[in-house]
């Protein structure tokens, strides 16, 4: 089978229609919009050229696919297309549908943009509203005034979300004035509550944060929703906003928020604990894996005149085989942040090679010793641990030596660091070598033998 019959069979196998390849093009708009959304000028220009080349008649399916891809693309893409369309010689878009009006709203000619805004004001849907929001920052006063007036009368949830996504990207432009604040005030009115609830679950991160903050101000969240969002939401800003509002309403929820996976939420919970909370209840926050949580817990003790270092020493003295590894590592890290040189022997017991402490504990203890030990004793304390099998522990050893005692590191330890497989360790060993006096480094560097 050859000729036209074979060509027709191949087209059917690939799922293409013979006339013009329209089915093939329809599936490419998402890909083209995604590539242009990364900000490369060539990709943005190519997408704009494809959009302007679309015929106005007989291409309804293709124009609908292109408009749908633009609507689903990140809001930044509209700003990029608007900037690219200002170039001299850009042809005028064809068609009186939403896509044609949106493309003509990018035109360099202010009269063309004004006519396009008037057309978009009579159209519905997220794409039309996004175009109006973009023109609300136009540099021509009549265009900007018409776009703003048309934008402020939209109340459908999907249209409000499209407007907010673009307005948030334009908030830093002087021509927008207080439009975002005005639009926020408009959403506070009762008819727009559905739109606020839609913003709370919007896929765009900036719009969702805007919606959550607005919903909190309007009292749209119940306490159960606040707790659930603070513990499980995928966005850190939304978690923090809801946690702070929950603690403002009910400080007794601090105990439940201490179990949150977000360190910022745990820090807020620790700060909300009562001033007379027992020190034993602060042990877990004092040994938290996050530094900001440990610091907040220490401030609780400082506020009532109790030194946190005493709590750390007492708890480290009670460490046994059954103590959780994470707790021991947190206690060592916390003591290194508020202790003194007298705490070094207790920390060195965690580094005893006969006890074989877990890597997490060794890293925290080494970091603490590197901070607290006198510089003159640092090489004697950490030098024997330069060959620790854990990469993180070895990194802590050489980082401490490079930062506080580079001139006293013997050549053998420098050589160990230079041949370890970890790049961070080799960089620290290089910093130690550059700080060494040449008179001490020259005899070994001229020798062909390795250290014994």
UniProtKB/TrEMBL annotation:
Domain of life of the organism encoding this protein? Bacteria
Region annotation (Disordered) ranges: 1-23, 430-452
Q: Spans of biased composition, class Basic residues?
A: 10-19
Compositional bias (Low complexity) at which positions? Answer: 430-442
Q: Which residues cross the membrane?
A: none
In Swiss-Prot or TrEMBL terms, this protein is called HEAT repeat protein
Q: Which organism is it from?
A: Actinacidiphila paucisporea
* Organism classification: Bacteria, Bacillati, Actinomycetota, Actinomycetes, Kitasatosporales
